Amino acid sequence: MAEHIVKRVLSTATNIASKSPKRLLTTDHAATTAKTSSTISMNDIPMSKTMVDLPGPNGYPLVGTAPEYFKGENKGQMHKVQRRFHEMYGPIFKEKLGPVTNISIADPNLVEEVVRSEGKFPNRPPYPSWTIYKKMRTQANGLMTVSNHEEWSTCRTVISKHMLRPKTVLQYVDIMNEVVTDFVNRLKYTRDNHAANSAVPDLQNELSKWAIESISAVLLETRLGCLDENVSSENQAFIDAVGDMFKTGHQLMVFAELHKRFGTKTWKTHVDAWDTIYRVAGEHIDKKLADITEKYERLQSGSEDDNKASFLEHLLGNENLPLDAVYANTTELMLAGLDTSANAMGMVTYLLSRNPRVQEKLIKEVDSVLQNRICTAEELSNMTYARAVVKETLRLFPVIPINARVMTEDTTIGGYLIPKGTCILLNTFTMSRDATQFVNPDDFIPERWERDSNKWNPFSNLPFGFGARSCAGRRMAQQELYLAIIRLAQNFWLAPSRDFDAEPTLRTVLTFEKDIPVEFQDR
Ligand code: HEM
């Protein structure tokens, strides 16, 4: 371990005690946007059609189409409303959402045009409510919320080196497996002690506990105890706050500033949720930094010789990342890793319970490769059907069904000149249900991902996004999901609930808002 890391970690101990919110990342760097070969200036193509020529719904004065998303059965179904608009207006349309005109696309060739022209610093717009909150609390940004180019690039480079290196990710198989063991035990315990049938009460919350326990074991190398019999109120508050933050963030997508000005209930819930997220995550990070500091003191005194760097040490070891950015990034990775993985697991259990043929085939693979053993890092690569099950789940229910980009240059998309600064919605959900790309698109058929079985356009299925700005936790998430579904298949037969059915709704991520209608029967 280099000398400067030791110094930095030791100085962190003092910083923990006197951590000042003023020690922020500088955000006033000049924006440096690369002009790529596929970006075109307004003057270059006088014949292009412009946004005026795009079709799209008319909407109402001032609010545009915003009411469409909040009325009756459309509530929480923005992905489906967008799909209907595409059916009416085609693969590219414009829409005025409140004061802003967005463009929506749902065609893999158009998506390719967008992502190929996004340059070195792709810009995914944070929710306006996130930006307002951060400014109000002088809170540093992390990867998920940052839009400044240089700030994003610094965080991304450091984090990708750890989170996206296949070798590094495989090192977490053991700890992820340990978490899955506790998860399965907890599912059985909860089911047997509380439910009249084989359902696990509040399954959504149980999946969230698994997801936060798993990603924290990676990021903090600490077990939070979320799968213990009694879960601390602080950890439960974190889980609830992440759900509230995503839900209200989505509701505040339009008119966030007005909500803040009038102090609406939605705005207050949003602020409380963020405050809780930062408080609880901050306490966990403080503890870990204190442990690291003690470890370095022991290393320096020669009483310890294990200097394997953890994720947090990896961040701290980078001089370009200020301490408040270390806190912000770790917090955002915790919350990004919670809701996405938990909901993806919810979708997997739901789809397996309704597709016994797929479930039987999964169990067959798991039994034949593992014969009851816990899956090792080496064996993971042989679990091809388990991988296909996850991929197919994310096709049918991409947990982030609508992604977005802000164009960093004037660009032509589909023959239309789109001005710099325009927000483009990439409709992952609509594309992955497109019958021209996928045979029987609404059916759950993992076999379609077997080699040579289908000729889909790769841009039609991007559940983790694309390119330099794609999901930083993709490999961790996939590994967590594979290990968890393998163990579920070893322990349970998943059946549809006899009591009720449910449909996912959108709160930034697709989620089962009620409970998940699945029973966990012993195999
Ligand atoms: C099934 C699980 C997951 C899915 C489907 C998913 C999906 C996504 C998507 C679609 C994006 C936007 C990508 C883009 O703009 O092109 C994203 C970004 C991100 N995800 Fe995930 N994610 C998952 C799990 C995770 C986990 C476990 C973590 C953390 C450990 C994580 C951390 C992030 C971060 C930090 C970003 C922002 C990256 C950046 O802007 O540079 N995700 N994710």
TrEMBL record:
Assigned keywords, A-Z: Cholesterol metabolism, Heme, Iron, Lipid metabolism, Membrane, Metal-binding, Mitochondrion, Mitochondrion inner membrane, Monooxygenase, Oxidoreductase, Steroid metabolism, Steroidogenesis, Sterol metabolism, Transit peptide
Needed co-factor(s): heme
Source organism (scientific name): Mytilus galloprovincialis (Mediterranean mussel)
Protein name: Cholesterol side-chain cleavage enzyme, mitochondrial
Lineage, top ranks: Eukaryota, Metazoa, Spiralia, Lophotrochozoa, Mollusca
Enzyme Commission numbers on file: 1.14.15.6
UniProt enzyme class: oxidoreductase
GO MF terms, alphabetically ordered: cholesterol monooxygenase (side-chain-cleaving) activity; heme binding; iron ion binding
Family: Belongs to the cytochrome P450 family.
